[in-house]
TrEMBL record, chain A:
<dbReference type="Pfam" id="PF09384">
    <property type="entry name" value="UTP15_C"/>
</dbReference>
<dbReference type="GO" id="GO:0005730">
    <property type="term" value="C:nucleolus"/>
</dbReference>
<dbReference type="InterPro" id="IPR018983">
    <property type="entry name" value="U3_snoRNA-assocProt_15_C"/>
</dbReference>
<keyword id="KW-0539">Nucleus</keyword>
<dbReference type="InterPro" id="IPR019775">
    <property type="entry name" value="WD40_repeat_CS"/>
</dbReference>
<feature type="repeat" description="WD">
    <location>
        <begin position="118"/>
        <end position="159"/>
    </location>
</feature>
<comment type="subunit">
    <text>Part of the small subunit (SSU) processome, composed of more than 70 proteins and the RNA chaperone small nucleolar RNA (snoRNA) U3. May be a component of the proposed t-UTP subcomplex of the ribosomal small subunit (SSU) processome.</text>
</comment>
<keyword id="KW-0698">rRNA processing</keyword>
<comment type="function">
    <text>Ribosome biogenesis factor. Involved in nucleolar processing of pre-18S ribosomal RNA. Required for optimal pre-ribosomal RNA transcription by RNA polymerase I. Part of the small subunit (SSU) processome, first precursor of the small eukaryotic ribosomal subunit. During the assembly of the SSU processome in the nucleolus, many ribosome biogenesis factors, an RNA chaperone and ribosomal proteins associate with the nascent pre-rRNA and work in concert to generate RNA folding, modifications, rearrangements and cleavage as well as targeted degradation of pre-ribosomal RNA by the RNA exosome.</text>
</comment>
TrEMBL record, chain B:
<feature type="repeat" description="WD">
    <location>
        <begin position="53"/>
        <end position="95"/>
    </location>
</feature>
<dbReference type="InterPro" id="IPR013087">
    <property type="entry name" value="Znf_C2H2_type"/>
</dbReference>
<dbReference type="GO" id="GO:0032040">
    <property type="term" value="C:small-subunit processome"/>
</dbReference>
<keyword id="KW-0690">Ribosome biogenesis</keyword>
<keyword id="KW-0853">WD repeat</keyword>
<feature type="compositionally biased region" description="Acidic residues">
    <location>
        <begin position="770"/>
        <end position="785"/>
    </location>
</feature>
<feature type="repeat" description="WD">
    <location>
        <begin position="201"/>
        <end position="232"/>
    </location>
</feature>
<dbReference type="GO" id="GO:0003723">
    <property type="term" value="F:RNA binding"/>
</dbReference>
<keyword id="KW-0698">rRNA processing</keyword>
Amino acid sequence: MASFKPTKIQVYPKLGEKVTQDTLYWKNYKAPVQIKEFGAVTNIDFSPVAPHNYAVTAFTRIHIYGPFSQEPVKSFTRFKDTAYCGRFRSDGQLLVAGCEDSVVRLFDVSGKVALRMFKGHTKAVRVTDFTSDRYHILTGSDDYTCRLWDIPNSTELTSYQEHTDYIRCGITSKLNRDLFITGSYDHTLKLFDARVNKSVMTMDHGQPVESLLLYPSEGLLVSAGGRYVKVWDLLKGGQPLVSLKNHHKTVTCLCLSSNGQRLLSASLDRHVKVYNTTNYKVVHNFDYAASILSLGLAPDDESIVVGMTNGILSIKHRKSSEETKEISGQQKRRPAYRVFVKGKNYVPKQDDYLVSKPVKQHLAKYDKQLKRFNVSKALDTALETWTRFRKPEITVAVIKELDRRGTLKNALAGRDERGLSQLLNFLVGNLVDPRFAPVLVPATEMILDIYQSVIGQSPVVDVQLQRLQDLLEREIGYQQDLLEVLGMLDTMFTSSLPRKEVPCSGISRPNGLAQGDASLTVL
Amino acid sequence: MVEHGDIRVVHRGGSKINFREPVLSHDSRLLLCASGECVKVFSSSTEECVHDLQGHTDLVTGVLLNPSNHLQAYSCSADGTVRLWDFTDGILIKTLVVGFPIYSLYASAHHNGVLFIVISMASDKRSELFQLAALHLPQSGDQLVEAREFSSVLGDVSSNPAAIAFGQGGEYIASAKGLHLEVYFFKKQKSYRFSLKEDNKKGAKNTFTCLSCHPKDDCIATGHEDGKIRLWRNFNHKREYTYSTLHWHHSAVSSVRFTPEGTNLLSGGVESVLVQWRYNQETQKDFLPRLGAAITHIAVSPDGELFCTAHSDNKLTVIQSCVKVSAVIQGLVKGESVRTDLMVDPRSKALVLNGKPGHLQFYSLQRDKQLYNLDIVQQEYIHESGLQQFEVVKAAFDTRGNWLATVEERKQKDSTLELNLKLWAYDEQTQSFVLNTTVSGPHEARITAMCFCHTADSQTTMLVSASQDGHFKAWQLAEAAQTEDEGPFWSCDFVGAYHSLVPECCCFSADGSLLAISFQEVVTVWSPASWELLTTLSQPPGAIRDLCFGRQSCSKYLLGTTAKNLLCCWNLLTCTLEWSTSMDVSLLLSDPLSENMAAFCSHAGCTDLFVFKPSEPRPLFSHKAICSGKVTRAVFAPREEMLESCEESSQWLNRSQLYFLTQYMDLMTFITKAEEDRLMASSKRLVIDDSVAVTPFYLLLGKHRQQQQEKQDRSFSAERNQLPQGSVAIKELLHTPAHVLPSASFLCSMFVRSLLISVTDSREEKKSEEEEMESDKEEESECEMEASTMGQGQTAEAQETAAPALTKAQARELRRVKKLDHSWLSSLLDS
């Protein structure tokens, strides 16, 4: 015959953000390590060769940190003024940096003194980079020019003066030694070919360009400027693909995750956003304490390094797989697999007579008591400390079930001081929860009706009742405020939405109802 | 007016099977119960209906085994006849015409030739007073006998058949009514009356509800309204009677019954728990809880092996004496009203409506059998009167039967309405519906209407629900979350309102491109794709009661009925009223398989039916006064096979059949003459082996066996000359005691030999068979040859006819064909 149907525990929707694969991935970092630099951190560059040290350009210094060290393994301090854009060559041997004093310096990573000094710019050099053949250097400067330099001879090869404002970002192609792109405050991106003496492509970003990024295939270019991140298709002659506006302050830095599937953008609004590169939707978001100027991602996403305006360098290391395992291992220690399959995988032989054992129904304690109609005991079980605090939905479900059975009054009545104060305590904790209120409000009314006569006899209960009253008064206040806000919003909506006329048949012989505007609310 | 000569309104299944106490046959294999105007015979092991004993013309009010012949049963009916049946073969043996409506029937093995019937006191009119009369059976061999010879035994008895019982070998008969118990002793011709006080101090009611007499002892068990059972003893004295009280039931005991040996007492009531008390050790009880619904009757088989309980949800439960349920026979469950509309499950073509509390029942119209119950509420049902339970109030299927939406609600006096919208997905593997989404509190007030979008081809289904809170909501299947392993679920897509009026009905057009929602007297038409309000239609005064889009060729029409007795038809292309007519339509319905619409109009206490096409002003079919009272629920059920009627008036029944529920919850349908004839013929053809219940499995196997038997019969009929059992020697052999006979092994070999066919015969047969096979082979090969020669012939013909036009290449080809070697054919022939 039909078996006892256990009390249904309502599953309430989980509040907060949804857990996706991306959140899991991007949350799997340790607590950040913070290092104080001397000034705003303007650039972070990872060495392309193992062990992937990274150069941090801050104020007049460039520090090189090892992957796990919190102290710089190396620092370059020979700058007369603020240093900019310290970048590694593709072999990780050389480092180039611009400076406020318009001199470009080239360092050996193991040495201290500059190997070469390139002089020629008239203003601060904010952009430096190596070309892919390793023999040339690209620089961009506030004097509106960008130049190519030969490293061995330390001579200037070419100079392009096409931009009409500061050049603040630039990038060289990794596949072609002659191609490079610069972005300027004149809102344009220009693609240069060193073999011709002028730019070959110009794209209009619409805002002062702050950062540039080339996809590994170099078919797509990402530019950041103002609040916008834009993606351009270079193969289609610089056609804009997408324009993203997810930040509410200037985007300062762009970065691509190691597998090329995710794009990261950092902004002065203190957020780092992670985009999916197939649909350009934000899939994750990091918050930082101050406006972000620079962002670096180690190969294989091993660490995220962020430099901020207040001179703090924040480094997040990825949790190793062992650690994550360890934690999960601690959480759940389950019995061995063979315990579960014991006897279950036995295949009966041909002549065996099968005796089917009735499946035993496992019921929770309160269900067992409900089955025997012990309503007060069931409520007591549901009000046990652990359930009450950890799983209030169970307590609420039992109260609801008792109400459905019409025996809630019996279950609530006849409690002593301790029991009653326990019950009131639970109500104070959960009464105003919108998920539980429809069930708990009638129950509270019932309790007040039942125990009306004993109010004032016990100080403990009186304190709880006082708390309950305070809670309700506060809640009523909130609700009033909310309704006021709703009213304000309604007026705003009605005034802003255009009145929509409903088409109605012109011949209004039998159909002549006043034309109405439909009030629509879309969830 | 259209003629409707050959279309009749008939009852179609779903009658009560729990109306009277069921009867178990002597061998416990068959179960008889009164069901509407017939007596149904079920197999107690397979739950299948074996026979329908048809013959009564009114409600059957009692079934009883003939005490003198356990293969026969009496049945009595309100049509004033008592009929005697051979229930194993389903044959009517005798009809006794009494002339008055009979309310129940009793008999005892110790009163030969007498039946006891309950008839009303005043023989002409329906009065509230009933009497128990002894009916003397006339000794006539005719089939139809007038039985007018009866004498009154007890006056003023209860019409409840459970309140009268024979005691201890037919010595006395006990009857309870109100607060009195009356025992009549046949020998002394004297009756004793015992009375109880109206109620005791606690306000419990002492009214008798049922009684049962102990078969061996002088003891009568009576059940009372307050849940007590009293055991009466010493009742052959006026003063010195005693009684003891048993109390377990918390509300009225509806049935008590002693087992044939008198060792146990069974009782049941609203709690739906069967309680088994030990006689003389009443503290020991066995319980069988959760039988599903209140117990109305308990029956025990004559050998005490099986119990049978009838339940208020039209169910019979067969229980073994070890208190274990062995079979459940479930009829169509009918409450006071059908809150959900009648629906047809697109997959199983079963009628779906709410059944047991909190369940939807799937009822096969063809087989008159409940297929299964779907538990919607999924909560423990508390059997207590006066308790507000969750009720299924709305349900809807999508076109292909992949989704089922249900709404359940529970309203308590002083608290808010609890509403749940549940969406069920059809699971191919388990062949049933599985809960997919639960929306608690989908609306703030009652849901007035709900419908699925009809489009068959679209991938996303849409559900629209309209509520008294002034909103309608559209629900759509949302895509699954990215990481969650759970599947897709439903979520709200759109909320709409119109002038804060209450939406009453909603309807999708056949192609799903339009949604019509009526707000009191205004019909709004929306586009579900963009949720734009396209137009409004109205025909004041009078709120819209029903809305229906036309189908197929009439899909440009929207029909509505208003509360002010108007049937309107709007043309959606011009957005104007096409026609309207004044009639009080209680229900408007469209046939999903054709463009026909059915309108049930209540007129002068009766309901008329009109079937029409929206495009034509003349109704296709009309039927005056199909039943008394209003019809509010009806459904078009698709037929399994199409009818090929070409008469205009019955063409609308070709593709689907119209079922409707009357005010008194009778399921009726329309049937054409041709169909009726066919049904009759098929029922006659169906002659079934009576000993075995008819299951589909049996039908399959049985047919096979029959064929085999026929074959054997044919083969042996020629040489079967003498049946062995007919011979004198064998008769003698069978009648001599076993211990004087020769040993069984000796006899056995002789017997087997006698059964064998002579050896030579069989050999010859074999030979002939072989020959036949050979000849078959030859024939085959000959055929092949013929085919090949035919091919040649054809080519030759072709050559002849096309000879002048032949090119050189073709000629060469022909020559090649001619040269082809056919020697392999000849070799085949030789072999």
